[in-house]
Amino acid sequence: MIVINCPYCGQDRHEEELTYGGEAEIIRPVDPTTVSDETWTDYLYFRNNPKGIHHEQWCCSAGCGQWFKVARDTVSHAVLEVVTFDKRLSA
Amino acid sequence: MNYNVFNLLWQGLSGHKGWQQAWRSPEPKPRYDAVIIGGGGHGLATAYYLAREYGMTNIALLEKGWLGGGNTGRNTTNVRSDYMFPESAAIYDMALRLYETLGKDLNYNIMLSQRGWLTLIEDQHQMEGARHKANWLQCNGVDGEIIGAAQVAQMMPGLQMKGRYPVRGAFLQKRGGTIRHDAVAWGYARAADRLGVDIIQNCEVQGFEQENGRITAINTSRGRIETDRVGVAVAGHSGVIAEKAGFRLPITSHCLQAMVSEPVRPFLDHVVISPGTGVYINQTQKGEMVMGGVLDLYHSYGQRGNFPTIEKVITSAVEMFPAFSQMRLMRHWAGIVDISPDSSPILGQTPVENMYINCGWGTGGFKAIPAGGYMLAHSIATGRPHELAAPFGLNRFRDNRLVDEGAAAGIAH
Questions:
Q1: Which domain holds residue A70?
Q2: Inter-chain contact B252–A47, Cβ cutoff 8 Å?
Q3: In chain A, N or C terminus with fewer CB closer than 10 Å?
């Protein structure tokens, strides 16, 4: 079971108390009408899907309700780094 | 050796000492006309149809572990074809029709049991949805009907009819049911091997050599193999192979778990899913209850279960069949499924010119094996998608022409 310490409220939350939000640091094109179809559909559908370290976002949904970023190993589920949403992951 | 009643009788009388190995274990050759990556159901079916329908026999199938050791041996063995959109219905029903004659085609008993696949209807909205779906299926020429609560209770005497989700009826596909999953892999493997396909196990793909956007050779843990064409059927690991070949897919990999109880006497004659709890159950020929539920919603390549999901599935199963509360769980397992944004498969051309893919079946890959294999074989042999595969190309995500079966057929993710 995945247990993550929320960087906002400081509590250990297990996966039932969290909501997964997919890949982190995806940026929506500011003006979709001016970007190419490729850039736009990259944003909509195409995702990194590594077997190994994945940068992702989680929400402390049964706790303080804040979104934060996590670096996690997708095979062992080891949580390697947790940062608040305004910071970048380094792992 | 063909399997038949006389052989069985003869072997039975002579102590079962004369059975031959079902397929060879050849050393990889330095070059093949085509190489298929992935020795699960889809890869093995691809090899078989490529040799049988398209006459390509100088081909190899590479499997990093053992045949059927991935999702083919880790599913809940269910088959059905009650998908809604005409594109999906065509391809899933083709799979079921091929399954219906597969035992004869392969000379291998796949133990197809068309015992009826019931989706319970638990409220007015589901009833309306079921009517909508029944109309679609009728237009698509696929069987499916709505039955009343009394008939459901008669078909499954152990089912709790008035629980948290009261049963108002069910959507029934009579041709749906179960198949012995390992037999599908082994049957295809034996038949492909007899047609001359080299099935190479314990052979992991480590990288590709490319020239002018084409793959020229594959580097594997058992040496370098040159080839003209590559087919990929690796389900949850599609992203890993795509990364090695230098492109991305709109696929995320998730863990899907299932579990099985100790064997008990015959109790459940059909396959049943409760949309309210998301849990589906069938009883194997051996007597075990096979139970599956929703997938883990986070990215995962961990082929193992976890307790929150087990708890959810077990509590829901007991809610559906209160008699199960006395049973013990025997084992549980997990496979890595490839989820696409519209819950429809991705078939055909990849950004690499001579590489073709078959992935994105998500939680429903097993039921689609014969069609998936046929489509990939067609792409490899002709360089073009089969007409049934054309709506499912990777380019649909660039053109925004999704086949949103996730919304249509109510797939639970």
A1: 3-83
A2: yes
A3: N
